[in-house]
Amino acid sequence: MNIAQRISIDPAAKNYVSKPRKLLIDGAWVNAQSGKTFPVYDPSTGEVLAHVAEADAADVDKAVKAARKAFDEGPWPRMSPSERGRHIWKLADLIEKHAEEFATLESLDNGKPLTVARVADVPLTVDMFRYMAGWATKITGTTIPISFPGEYLSFTLREPVGVVGQIIPWNFPLLMAAWKLAPALATGCTIVLKVAEQTPLSGLRLGELVAEAGIPNGVVNVLAGYGETAGAALAAHHGVDKVAFTGSTEVGKLIVQAAAGNLKKVTLELGGKSPVVVLDDADVDAAIPGAAGAIFFNHGQCCCAGSRLMIHKKIFDKVVAGVAKEAESIKLGPGLDPDTQMGPLVSDEQFQRVTGYIRSGIAEGAEVVVGGKKGSDNGGYFVQPTVLTKTNSDMKVVREEIFGPVVCATPITDADLEDIARQANATNYGLAASVWTRDISKANKLAKRIRAGTVWINCHNVFDASLPFGGYKESGWGREMGEFVLNNYTEVKAVTTAL
Ligand code: ADP
Description:
By secondary structure, the protein is of the alpha/beta class. It is 38% helix and 20% strand. The protein contains 16 helices and 19 strands.
Protein backbone atom coordinates (compact mmCIF):
# COMPACT_ATOMS: atom_id res chain seq x y z
CA MET A 1 0.00 0.00 0.00
CA ASN A 2 1.36 3.44 -0.81
CA ILE A 3 0.93 6.46 1.46
CA ALA A 4 -2.11 7.80 -0.38
CA GLN A 5 -3.88 4.45 0.10
CA ARG A 6 -2.98 4.26 3.77
CA ILE A 7 -4.23 7.76 4.64
CA SER A 8 -7.91 8.39 5.08
CA ILE A 9 -8.90 11.74 6.53
CA ASP A 10 -11.80 12.30 8.89
CA PRO A 11 -14.46 14.18 6.84
CA ALA A 12 -15.33 16.59 9.67
CA ALA A 13 -11.68 17.63 10.05
CA LYS A 14 -11.34 18.00 6.29
CA ASN A 15 -14.37 20.25 6.26
CA TYR A 16 -13.04 22.26 9.19
CA VAL A 17 -9.75 23.17 7.48
CA SER A 18 -11.48 23.94 4.16
CA LYS A 19 -12.93 27.26 5.40
CA PRO A 20 -11.23 30.32 6.90
CA ARG A 21 -11.62 30.22 10.67
CA LYS A 22 -12.69 33.15 12.84
CA LEU A 23 -12.22 34.36 16.42
CA LEU A 24 -14.62 33.58 19.27
CA ILE A 25 -15.53 36.79 21.10
CA ASP A 26 -18.56 37.09 23.37
CA GLY A 27 -20.16 33.98 21.91
CA ALA A 28 -19.89 35.16 18.28
CA TRP A 29 -17.50 34.03 15.54
CA VAL A 30 -15.99 37.19 14.11
CA ASN A 31 -13.26 38.32 11.73
CA ALA A 32 -10.29 40.22 13.10
CA GLN A 33 -11.08 43.94 13.20
CA SER A 34 -8.15 44.54 10.86
CA GLY A 35 -9.66 41.99 8.45
CA LYS A 36 -6.30 40.18 8.42
CA THR A 37 -5.85 36.42 8.28
CA PHE A 38 -2.73 34.29 8.50
CA PRO A 39 -1.83 30.94 6.95
CA VAL A 40 -1.42 27.76 8.94
CA TYR A 41 0.99 25.20 7.47
CA ASP A 42 0.94 21.42 7.21
CA PRO A 43 4.29 20.57 8.78
CA SER A 44 4.59 17.31 6.84
CA THR A 45 4.68 19.15 3.48
CA GLY A 46 5.23 22.83 4.26
CA GLU A 47 2.05 23.63 2.30
CA VAL A 48 -0.74 25.91 3.52
CA LEU A 49 -3.34 23.91 5.43
CA ALA A 50 -5.85 26.60 6.46
CA HIS A 51 -6.39 30.31 6.96
CA VAL A 52 -7.28 31.85 10.30
CA ALA A 53 -8.31 35.35 11.42
CA GLU A 54 -5.35 37.21 12.92
CA ALA A 55 -6.21 38.87 16.22
CA ASP A 56 -4.22 41.90 17.35
CA ALA A 57 -4.49 44.36 20.24
CA ALA A 58 -7.92 45.64 19.12
CA ASP A 59 -9.42 42.13 19.17
CA VAL A 60 -7.74 41.37 22.49
CA ASP A 61 -9.35 44.49 23.92
CA LYS A 62 -12.78 43.45 22.65
CA ALA A 63 -12.38 39.92 24.02
CA VAL A 64 -11.16 41.15 27.40
CA LYS A 65 -14.16 43.50 27.66
CA ALA A 66 -16.48 40.55 26.90
CA ALA A 67 -14.78 38.40 29.53
CA ARG A 68 -14.86 41.31 32.00
CA LYS A 69 -18.60 41.77 31.51
CA ALA A 70 -19.19 38.02 31.82
CA PHE A 71 -17.26 38.02 35.08
CA ASP A 72 -18.60 41.24 36.61
CA GLU A 73 -22.23 40.86 35.57
CA GLY A 74 -22.78 37.42 34.06
CA PRO A 75 -24.14 34.19 35.53
CA TRP A 76 -20.95 32.09 35.39
CA PRO A 77 -19.23 33.08 38.65
CA ARG A 78 -22.62 33.27 40.36
CA MET A 79 -23.92 29.92 39.17
CA SER A 80 -24.13 27.05 41.64
CA PRO A 81 -20.92 25.03 41.62
CA SER A 82 -22.77 21.85 40.67
CA GLU A 83 -24.30 23.52 37.65
CA ARG A 84 -20.90 24.84 36.59
CA GLY A 85 -19.48 21.37 37.01
CA ARG A 86 -22.21 19.91 34.81
CA HIS A 87 -21.38 22.30 31.96
CA ILE A 88 -17.70 21.42 32.18
CA TRP A 89 -18.58 17.71 32.14
CA LYS A 90 -20.80 18.30 29.11
CA LEU A 91 -17.87 19.97 27.34
CA ALA A 92 -15.80 16.84 28.02
CA ASP A 93 -18.58 14.67 26.56
CA LEU A 94 -18.71 16.83 23.43
CA ILE A 95 -14.96 16.63 22.90
CA GLU A 96 -15.19 12.87 23.28
CA LYS A 97 -18.04 12.77 20.76
CA HIS A 98 -15.80 14.55 18.23
CA ALA A 99 -12.65 12.68 19.25
CA GLU A 100 -11.65 11.57 15.76
CA GLU A 101 -12.06 15.07 14.35
CA PHE A 102 -9.93 16.54 17.16
CA ALA A 103 -7.23 13.88 16.78
CA THR A 104 -7.12 14.53 13.03
CA LEU A 105 -6.94 18.32 13.41
CA GLU A 106 -4.15 17.91 15.94
CA SER A 107 -2.21 15.62 13.63
CA LEU A 108 -2.67 17.86 10.59
CA ASP A 109 -1.80 21.05 12.40
CA ASN A 110 1.03 19.93 14.67
CA GLY A 111 2.38 16.99 12.67
CA LYS A 112 2.11 14.43 15.47
CA PRO A 113 1.01 10.91 14.58
CA LEU A 114 -2.77 10.51 14.51
CA THR A 115 -2.26 7.24 16.37
CA VAL A 116 -0.70 9.22 19.25
CA ALA A 117 -3.26 12.04 19.23
CA ARG A 118 -6.00 9.39 19.51
CA VAL A 119 -4.57 7.72 22.60
CA ALA A 120 -2.87 10.67 24.32
CA ASP A 121 -3.89 14.22 23.41
CA VAL A 122 -7.64 13.70 23.07
CA PRO A 123 -8.35 11.34 26.00
CA LEU A 124 -6.10 13.36 28.34
CA THR A 125 -8.04 16.47 27.31
CA VAL A 126 -11.36 14.80 28.08
CA ASP A 127 -10.01 13.57 31.45
CA MET A 128 -8.79 17.04 32.36
CA PHE A 129 -12.24 18.58 31.87
CA ARG A 130 -13.93 15.73 33.77
CA TYR A 131 -11.44 15.92 36.63
CA MET A 132 -11.94 19.67 36.96
CA ALA A 133 -15.73 19.35 36.62
CA GLY A 134 -15.53 17.40 39.88
CA TRP A 135 -13.53 20.13 41.61
CA ALA A 136 -16.17 22.80 40.91
CA THR A 137 -18.15 21.61 43.95
CA LYS A 138 -15.13 21.11 46.23
CA ILE A 139 -13.44 24.50 46.35
CA THR A 140 -13.66 25.32 50.03
CA GLY A 141 -12.13 27.63 52.59
CA THR A 142 -11.24 26.78 56.18
CA THR A 143 -12.34 27.95 59.62
CA ILE A 144 -9.41 29.35 61.53
CA PRO A 145 -9.21 29.70 65.33
CA ILE A 146 -7.69 33.13 66.05
CA SER A 147 -5.99 34.45 69.21
CA PHE A 148 -7.03 38.10 68.97
CA PRO A 149 -8.56 39.20 72.33
CA GLY A 150 -12.32 38.72 72.29
CA GLU A 151 -14.61 36.21 70.62
CA TYR A 152 -14.54 35.90 66.85
CA LEU A 153 -15.41 33.53 64.08
CA SER A 154 -12.90 33.55 61.22
CA PHE A 155 -13.05 31.64 57.98
CA THR A 156 -11.65 31.88 54.48
CA LEU A 157 -13.48 32.05 51.17
CA ARG A 158 -11.94 30.94 47.89
CA GLU A 159 -13.11 33.22 45.10
CA PRO A 160 -12.37 33.20 41.38
CA VAL A 161 -9.43 35.41 40.49
CA GLY A 162 -11.47 37.10 37.73
CA VAL A 163 -10.65 37.56 34.06
CA VAL A 164 -7.83 35.27 33.02
CA GLY A 165 -5.62 35.66 29.96
CA GLN A 166 -4.23 32.31 28.84
CA ILE A 167 -1.45 31.89 26.30
CA ILE A 168 -0.60 28.40 25.09
CA PRO A 169 2.05 26.76 22.88
CA TRP A 170 1.90 24.47 19.87
CA ASN A 171 3.28 21.15 21.17
CA PHE A 172 -0.01 19.82 22.61
CA PRO A 173 -2.46 22.42 21.33
CA LEU A 174 -5.71 20.83 22.54
CA LEU A 175 -4.35 19.45 25.80
CA MET A 176 -2.72 22.75 26.72
CA ALA A 177 -6.05 24.48 26.10
CA ALA A 178 -7.64 21.95 28.51
CA TRP A 179 -4.96 22.42 31.18
CA LYS A 180 -5.73 26.13 31.09
CA LEU A 181 -9.49 26.28 30.52
CA ALA A 182 -10.66 23.48 32.82
CA PRO A 183 -9.43 24.85 36.18
CA ALA A 184 -10.34 28.42 35.23
CA LEU A 185 -13.89 27.27 34.43
CA ALA A 186 -14.16 25.16 37.57
CA THR A 187 -13.27 28.11 39.78
CA GLY A 188 -15.72 30.46 38.03
CA CYS A 189 -13.26 32.64 36.13
CA THR A 190 -13.84 34.02 32.64
CA ILE A 191 -11.22 33.58 29.97
CA VAL A 192 -9.46 34.96 26.94
CA LEU A 193 -7.43 32.11 25.48
CA LYS A 194 -4.79 32.82 22.85
CA VAL A 195 -3.83 29.72 20.92
CA ALA A 196 -0.43 29.35 19.27
CA GLU A 197 -0.08 30.77 15.77
CA GLN A 198 1.48 27.52 14.52
CA THR A 199 -1.45 25.36 15.70
CA PRO A 200 -4.68 27.31 16.16
CA LEU A 201 -7.17 24.78 14.80
CA SER A 202 -8.10 22.46 17.67
CA GLY A 203 -8.43 25.34 20.16
CA LEU A 204 -10.77 27.21 17.83
CA ARG A 205 -12.79 24.05 17.21
CA LEU A 206 -13.03 23.53 20.96
CA GLY A 207 -14.44 27.06 21.16
CA GLU A 208 -17.37 25.93 19.02
CA LEU A 209 -18.35 23.36 21.64
CA VAL A 210 -18.37 25.83 24.52
CA ALA A 211 -21.81 27.23 23.67
CA GLU A 212 -23.15 23.73 23.03
CA ALA A 213 -22.03 22.78 26.53
CA GLY A 214 -24.22 25.61 27.86
CA ILE A 215 -21.35 27.85 28.98
CA PRO A 216 -22.61 31.45 28.69
CA ASN A 217 -21.33 33.90 26.07
CA GLY A 218 -18.18 35.78 26.98
CA VAL A 219 -16.98 33.18 29.51
CA VAL A 220 -14.60 31.59 27.00
CA ASN A 221 -13.16 33.77 24.24
CA VAL A 222 -10.67 32.19 21.84
CA LEU A 223 -8.21 34.23 19.79
CA ALA A 224 -5.66 33.18 17.22
CA GLY A 225 -2.78 35.51 16.49
CA TYR A 226 0.91 36.10 16.92
CA GLY A 227 2.73 36.29 20.22
CA GLU A 228 4.34 39.68 19.77
CA THR A 229 0.98 41.29 18.94
CA ALA A 230 -2.03 39.42 20.37
CA GLY A 231 -0.09 37.59 23.10
CA ALA A 232 1.75 40.68 24.28
CA ALA A 233 -1.47 42.75 24.30
CA LEU A 234 -3.22 40.11 26.41
CA ALA A 235 -0.37 39.85 28.92
CA ALA A 236 -0.33 43.65 29.33
CA HIS A 237 -4.09 44.36 29.33
CA HIS A 238 -5.30 46.10 32.49
CA GLY A 239 -8.70 44.39 32.28
CA VAL A 240 -7.02 41.03 32.89
CA ASP A 241 -6.59 39.90 36.51
CA LYS A 242 -4.31 36.99 35.88
CA VAL A 243 -2.21 35.62 33.07
CA ALA A 244 -1.37 31.94 32.70
CA PHE A 245 1.34 31.16 30.20
CA THR A 246 2.91 28.00 28.82
CA GLY A 247 5.87 28.36 26.49
CA SER A 248 9.54 29.23 26.41
CA THR A 249 11.41 30.63 29.39
CA GLU A 250 12.47 33.56 27.22
CA VAL A 251 8.86 34.59 26.52
CA GLY A 252 7.89 33.76 30.13
CA LYS A 253 10.20 36.57 31.27
CA LEU A 254 8.51 38.98 28.82
CA ILE A 255 5.12 37.95 30.25
CA VAL A 256 6.28 38.86 33.76
CA GLN A 257 7.32 42.33 32.56
CA ALA A 258 4.09 42.84 30.62
CA ALA A 259 2.02 41.78 33.64
CA ALA A 260 3.71 44.30 35.92
CA GLY A 261 1.55 47.21 34.67
CA ASN A 262 -1.46 46.21 36.78
CA LEU A 263 0.38 43.59 38.83
CA LYS A 264 -1.80 40.85 37.46
CA LYS A 265 -1.20 37.43 38.94
CA VAL A 266 1.14 35.30 36.84
CA THR A 267 1.68 31.58 36.49
CA LEU A 268 4.23 30.18 34.08
CA GLU A 269 4.93 26.70 32.78
CA LEU A 270 8.22 27.05 30.94
CA GLY A 271 11.13 25.14 29.48
CA GLY A 272 13.20 22.28 30.75
CA LYS A 273 16.39 20.32 30.28
CA SER A 274 15.31 17.24 32.12
CA PRO A 275 17.81 14.61 33.25
CA VAL A 276 17.20 10.89 32.77
CA VAL A 277 19.46 9.19 35.32
CA VAL A 278 20.22 5.51 34.69
CA LEU A 279 22.03 3.86 37.60
CA ASP A 280 24.15 0.71 37.23
CA ASP A 281 21.51 -1.51 38.83
CA ALA A 282 18.72 -0.35 36.49
CA ASP A 283 16.60 -2.82 34.56
CA VAL A 284 18.30 -1.99 31.28
CA ASP A 285 15.57 -3.62 29.20
CA ALA A 286 13.10 -1.12 30.65
CA ALA A 287 15.49 1.83 30.85
CA ILE A 288 16.44 1.74 27.15
CA PRO A 289 12.93 2.14 25.71
CA GLY A 290 12.15 4.41 28.66
CA ALA A 291 15.03 6.76 27.88
CA ALA A 292 14.20 6.69 24.16
CA GLY A 293 10.55 7.49 24.87
CA ALA A 294 11.56 10.25 27.29
CA ILE A 295 13.22 12.20 24.49
CA PHE A 296 11.50 11.04 21.31
CA PHE A 297 7.86 11.23 22.44
CA ASN A 298 6.15 14.09 20.56
CA HIS A 299 9.42 14.48 18.58
CA GLY A 300 11.14 15.88 21.67
CA GLN A 301 8.73 18.81 21.61
CA CYS A 302 7.88 18.43 25.30
CA CYS A 303 8.94 20.82 28.02
CA CYS A 304 9.76 17.75 30.14
CA ALA A 305 11.65 15.86 27.39
CA GLY A 306 14.46 13.78 28.87
CA SER A 307 17.18 15.56 26.93
CA ARG A 308 20.14 14.90 29.26
CA LEU A 309 20.74 11.17 29.49
CA MET A 310 23.07 10.44 32.42
CA ILE A 311 24.12 6.80 32.40
CA HIS A 312 26.36 4.97 34.85
CA LYS A 313 29.68 4.35 33.14
CA LYS A 314 29.43 0.56 33.64
CA ILE A 315 26.38 0.33 31.37
CA PHE A 316 26.94 3.47 29.29
CA ASP A 317 27.82 1.75 25.99
CA LYS A 318 24.99 -0.75 26.29
CA VAL A 319 22.33 1.87 27.04
CA VAL A 320 23.56 4.28 24.36
CA ALA A 321 23.60 1.48 21.77
CA GLY A 322 20.09 0.47 22.83
CA VAL A 323 18.70 4.00 22.63
CA ALA A 324 20.42 4.50 19.25
CA LYS A 325 18.82 1.29 17.99
CA GLU A 326 15.41 2.52 19.14
CA ALA A 327 16.06 5.85 17.39
CA GLU A 328 17.04 4.14 14.14
CA SER A 329 13.91 2.01 14.15
CA ILE A 330 11.50 4.97 14.47
CA LYS A 331 9.53 5.42 11.26
CA LEU A 332 9.26 9.08 10.22
CA GLY A 333 6.28 10.17 8.15
CA PRO A 334 3.21 12.37 7.91
CA GLY A 335 1.08 12.25 11.03
CA LEU A 336 -1.96 10.85 9.24
CA ASP A 337 -0.10 7.79 7.94
CA PRO A 338 -0.98 4.96 10.34
CA ASP A 339 2.57 3.56 9.91
CA THR A 340 4.16 6.79 11.17
CA GLN A 341 5.84 6.68 14.57
CA MET A 342 7.32 10.19 14.47
CA GLY A 343 6.02 13.10 12.46
CA PRO A 344 7.70 16.32 11.37
CA LEU A 345 8.62 19.15 13.73
CA VAL A 346 5.92 21.77 13.95
CA SER A 347 7.39 24.51 11.76
CA ASP A 348 10.26 25.58 9.58
CA GLU A 349 11.45 27.83 12.42
CA GLN A 350 11.59 24.84 14.75
CA PHE A 351 13.32 22.76 12.08
CA GLN A 352 16.00 25.46 11.69
CA ARG A 353 16.38 25.74 15.43
CA VAL A 354 16.80 22.01 16.07
CA THR A 355 19.15 21.38 13.13
CA GLY A 356 21.11 24.48 14.20
CA TYR A 357 21.59 22.94 17.66
CA ILE A 358 22.77 19.66 16.13
CA ARG A 359 25.33 21.57 14.01
CA SER A 360 26.46 23.54 17.05
CA GLY A 361 26.89 20.34 19.08
CA ILE A 362 29.02 18.80 16.35
CA ALA A 363 31.07 22.00 16.03
CA GLU A 364 31.71 21.93 19.78
CA GLY A 365 32.97 18.34 19.61
CA ALA A 366 29.91 16.15 20.19
CA GLU A 367 29.75 12.83 18.38
CA VAL A 368 26.60 11.79 16.49
CA VAL A 369 25.83 8.16 17.36
CA VAL A 370 22.69 8.11 15.26
CA GLY A 371 20.56 10.62 13.34
CA GLY A 372 21.67 14.23 13.07
CA LYS A 373 20.16 14.84 9.66
CA LYS A 374 17.09 16.14 7.94
CA GLY A 375 14.49 13.37 7.83
CA SER A 376 12.98 13.88 4.35
CA ASP A 377 13.30 15.92 1.17
CA ASN A 378 9.62 16.56 0.54
CA GLY A 379 9.45 20.06 2.05
CA GLY A 380 8.24 18.77 5.45
CA TYR A 381 10.07 19.67 8.66
CA PHE A 382 11.45 16.22 9.50
CA VAL A 383 14.51 15.72 11.69
CA GLN A 384 15.99 12.30 12.43
CA PRO A 385 15.92 11.18 16.07
CA THR A 386 19.43 11.98 17.22
CA VAL A 387 21.75 10.67 19.94
CA LEU A 388 24.86 12.70 20.79
CA THR A 389 27.77 11.57 22.98
CA LYS A 390 31.05 13.18 24.01
CA THR A 391 29.09 16.17 25.20
CA ASN A 392 29.99 18.28 28.21
CA SER A 393 28.23 20.81 30.39
CA ASP A 394 29.78 23.80 28.57
CA MET A 395 28.09 22.92 25.30
CA LYS A 396 24.98 24.75 24.16
CA VAL A 397 23.30 21.41 23.36
CA VAL A 398 23.63 20.42 27.02
CA ARG A 399 22.76 23.79 28.56
CA GLU A 400 19.90 25.00 26.39
CA GLU A 401 16.48 23.58 25.65
CA ILE A 402 16.45 22.21 22.08
CA PHE A 403 12.78 21.17 21.97
CA GLY A 404 13.46 18.49 19.38
CA PRO A 405 14.40 14.80 19.15
CA VAL A 406 18.00 15.27 20.29
CA VAL A 407 19.45 13.65 23.39
CA CYS A 408 22.90 14.23 24.91
CA ALA A 409 24.24 11.14 26.66
CA THR A 410 26.96 11.43 29.32
CA PRO A 411 28.50 8.80 31.58
CA ILE A 412 28.09 9.28 35.31
CA THR A 413 31.59 8.87 36.61
CA ASP A 414 30.85 8.95 40.31
CA ALA A 415 28.43 6.58 42.01
CA ASP A 416 27.92 8.98 44.95
CA LEU A 417 24.26 10.05 44.99
CA GLU A 418 25.06 13.62 46.10
CA ASP A 419 27.32 14.02 43.11
CA ILE A 420 24.76 12.52 40.73
CA ALA A 421 22.12 14.89 42.11
CA ARG A 422 24.52 17.81 41.64
CA GLN A 423 25.03 16.86 37.99
CA ALA A 424 21.28 16.40 37.48
CA ASN A 425 20.71 19.84 39.04
CA ALA A 426 23.40 21.56 36.96
CA THR A 427 20.85 23.44 34.88
CA ASN A 428 18.82 26.64 35.14
CA TYR A 429 15.71 24.56 34.63
CA GLY A 430 13.84 22.35 37.09
CA LEU A 431 10.80 20.90 35.42
CA ALA A 432 11.18 17.13 35.49
CA ALA A 433 13.57 14.20 35.84
CA SER A 434 13.51 10.46 35.76
CA VAL A 435 15.57 7.98 37.74
CA TRP A 436 16.08 4.39 36.61
CA THR A 437 17.22 1.90 39.27
CA ARG A 438 16.06 -1.25 41.08
CA ASP A 439 17.11 0.26 44.42
CA ILE A 440 14.05 1.92 45.91
CA SER A 441 16.10 3.73 48.53
CA LYS A 442 18.50 5.25 46.01
CA ALA A 443 15.58 6.16 43.77
CA ASN A 444 13.80 8.04 46.52
CA LYS A 445 16.95 9.69 47.82
CA LEU A 446 17.58 11.04 44.33
CA ALA A 447 13.94 12.06 43.99
CA LYS A 448 14.37 14.17 47.14
CA ARG A 449 17.63 15.72 45.98
CA ILE A 450 16.66 16.58 42.41
CA ARG A 451 15.25 20.10 42.23
CA ALA A 452 12.40 19.59 39.78
CA GLY A 453 8.61 19.74 39.92
CA THR A 454 8.21 16.14 38.77
CA VAL A 455 10.43 13.12 39.39
CA TRP A 456 9.52 9.86 37.72
CA ILE A 457 11.02 6.60 39.00
CA ASN A 458 11.41 3.87 36.38
CA CYS A 459 9.11 5.77 34.03
CA HIS A 460 8.95 9.12 32.22
CA ASN A 461 6.12 11.23 30.78
CA VAL A 462 3.42 9.74 33.01
CA PHE A 463 0.72 12.39 33.27
CA ASP A 464 -2.57 12.52 35.06
CA ALA A 465 -5.09 15.31 35.59
CA SER A 466 -4.72 14.73 39.33
CA LEU A 467 -0.94 15.24 39.48
CA PRO A 468 0.51 18.73 39.86
CA PHE A 469 2.95 19.67 37.09
CA GLY A 470 5.28 22.64 36.94
CA GLY A 471 8.76 23.86 37.53
CA TYR A 472 11.43 24.86 40.00
CA LYS A 473 13.92 27.54 39.03
CA GLU A 474 13.52 28.96 35.51
CA SER A 475 10.96 26.30 34.59
CA GLY A 476 8.16 28.43 35.97
CA TRP A 477 5.82 29.66 38.66
CA GLY A 478 2.90 27.66 40.04
CA ARG A 479 1.57 24.25 39.10
CA GLU A 480 -0.85 22.99 36.47
CA MET A 481 -3.39 20.23 37.18
CA GLY A 482 -4.27 18.44 40.38
CA GLU A 483 -5.85 20.20 43.33
CA PHE A 484 -2.90 22.55 43.36
CA VAL A 485 -3.86 24.35 40.15
CA LEU A 486 -6.96 25.72 41.89
CA ASN A 487 -4.62 28.05 43.80
CA ASN A 488 -3.67 29.62 40.46
CA TYR A 489 -7.25 30.62 39.78
CA THR A 490 -8.55 31.63 43.19
CA GLU A 491 -8.06 34.50 45.60
CA VAL A 492 -8.33 33.80 49.32
CA LYS A 493 -10.45 36.10 51.45
CA ALA A 494 -10.31 36.05 55.28
CA VAL A 495 -13.68 36.92 56.85
CA THR A 496 -13.84 37.70 60.58
CA THR A 497 -17.01 38.28 62.61
CA ALA A 498 -17.03 39.67 66.13
CA LEU A 499 -19.40 37.43 68.08
P1 ADP B 1 7.91 28.35 21.42
O1 ADP B 1 9.31 28.89 21.49
O2 ADP B 1 7.76 27.00 21.95
O3 ADP B 1 7.20 28.64 20.12
P2 ADP B 1 6.84 30.62 22.66
O4 ADP B 1 7.15 30.90 24.08
O5 ADP B 1 7.46 31.46 21.61
O6 ADP B 1 7.12 29.11 22.50
O7 ADP B 1 5.28 30.66 22.39
C1 ADP B 1 4.30 30.17 23.26
C2 ADP B 1 3.10 31.07 23.17
O8 ADP B 1 3.49 32.38 23.56
C3 ADP B 1 2.49 31.21 21.79
O9 ADP B 1 1.08 31.29 21.91
C4 ADP B 1 3.04 32.53 21.31
O10 ADP B 1 2.22 33.17 20.36
C5 ADP B 1 3.09 33.32 22.60
N1 ADP B 1 4.05 34.44 22.61
C6 ADP B 1 5.21 34.56 21.95
N2 ADP B 1 5.78 35.74 22.21
C7 ADP B 1 4.99 36.41 23.07
C8 ADP B 1 5.03 37.67 23.74
N3 ADP B 1 6.04 38.51 23.56
N4 ADP B 1 4.02 37.98 24.57
C9 ADP B 1 2.99 37.13 24.78
N5 ADP B 1 2.89 35.95 24.18
C10 ADP B 1 3.86 35.56 23.34
